Amino acid sequence: MSESRFDRWRAPYAADPAATRGRLFPEASSPTRSDFQRDRDRIIHASAFRRLKHKTQVFVFHEGDHYRTRLTHTIEVSQIARALARALGLDEDLAEALALSHDLGHTPFGHTGEDALEDCMAAYGGFDHNAQALRIVTRLEKRYADFDGLNLTWETLEGLVKHNGPLMDGEGRPTTRYQRRGIPGAILEYNARHDLWLDTHASGEAQAAAIADDIAYGAHDIDDGLRAGLFELDALRQVPFLAALLEEIEARWPGLERSRVIHELGRRIITRFVEDGIAESERRIAALAPADADAIRRAAGPVVCFSPAMAEADRAIKGFLFPNMYRAPSVVAVRRQADQVVRDLFGRFFETPSLMPGEWRDDLDAADEHRRARRVADYIAGMTDGYALNEHRRLFEVTPELR
User: Fold this and answer.
1) Which one, of 395, 375, 401, 342, lies nearest residue 109 by Cα?
2) How is 92-155 classified by DSSP, letter by letter?
3) What is the CA radius of gyration of the chain?
4) pLDDT per residue rounded down to tens, the chain (403 residues)
5) Which of the listed residues 70, 118, 151, 358 has the most CB atoms within 10 Å of its CB?
6) Domain, as residue range, for 223
7) Do residues 375 and 292 share a domain?
8) Which residue range or ranges hold the HD domain (predicted)?
9) Are the C-beta atoms of residues 56 and 385 closer than 8 Å to each other?
10) Residues 39 and 155 in one domain
11) Which residues does 316 contact at the CB level (< 8 Å), separation at least 6?
12) Of 300, 328, 356, which residue is a domain's last?
């Protein structure tokens, strides 16, 4: 069936599923879905995607069912990414696929688990959640008869790896993010088989997914922090952008109940960032005048982004959340316990890999410590919070209650 079935209004600089650079393992096209739609659907049906339901975003699950998990955060990111892509004439399906896959590589217990695994893997190539997401979609998901992984398109894999910008410069040297530890081996290994252009920016769709992530977690961490009582509304006034929004709400609805103020604040944060992102991106796109998607990739800087004023507001929000939420005493206490759980599990499984399920311990050479460590990291990274705690209870006499 002709690809025209999937045509919609699309800017010339949008990624075009009819012109995809393809998959590592060639497949026949679908008569009912574009290649980017197939990628999105494969991600949704992946085991790693389902496990996001029980992985911590910022709080661990003991805080209650009303707080974000990796899955609810991911859904919120995908909604914002679609809105940005639609407004900018980008391919919505690719933007959605990238938003849905951006957190697949995260460990249990949020960034605490990632930090712990990074330390445990320091002598064995390190741990990076973007590299882990690539491992999941190219190796660890075992669903298809013809290949390991999901066999996603080049455009989805490129965006997954580079949504935060190029990984190396034109001379092949790691960019700032990877200067200290180098580009993760999993990315370099895959790139040798399927060149993802690590020295360029990603597509406009990937850039839209990246700022959608910033918008979602900034707004929703404020919402979760308020509902958890980590800080009060008045404390937000130290951020001028938030103070102005609160004044706007108070002027329109004097004496509005706290829960509705929180909701109105969240709505306004998302709306202002989305509108600013669209306006600034339109301005940059007009200045660049990209003839195709590769012109965005080869641009000197990101094209889909916030204005300088809104970027400063974003930094101010993060500057508030870091001490008041991510380093709040109650959160730090739980993070410390979760850190110990991950380190305990890594040490025990590395020492005795036979304690892992069969598919994880098969084909391991006792003398190959690097391969054993990576297998243990893969196993732990795929755990949900609850499964990690259950495994700890199985292997240790005392397990933290995470409270």
Assistant:
1) 342
2) HHHHHHHHHHTTTT--TTHHHHHHHHHHHTGGGT---HHHHHHHIIIII----SS-SS---BHH
3) 22
4) 344 444 457 899 999 999 999 999 999 999 999 999 999 999 999 999 999 999 987 654 445 555 678 999 999 999 999 999 999 999 999 999 999 999 999 999 989 999 999 999 999 999 999 999 999 999 999 999 999 999 999 999 999 999 999 999 988 999 988 988 899 999 999 999 999 999 999 999 999 999 999 999 999 999 999 988 999 999 999 999 999 999 999 999 999 999 999 999 999 999 999 999 999 999 999 999 999 999 999 999 999 999 999 999 999 999 999 999 999 998 899 999 999 999 999 999 999 999 999 889 888 887 899 999 999 999 999 999 999 999 999 999 999 988 7
5) 70
6) 207-328
7) no
8) 70-218
9) yes
10) yes
11) 239, 240, 241
12) 328
Token output for 272: 């202002």
Assigned token pair, 323: 């001490």
Query: H or E segment at 250?
Result: helix 240-252
Instruction: Enter the tokens of residue 398.
Output: 């005392």
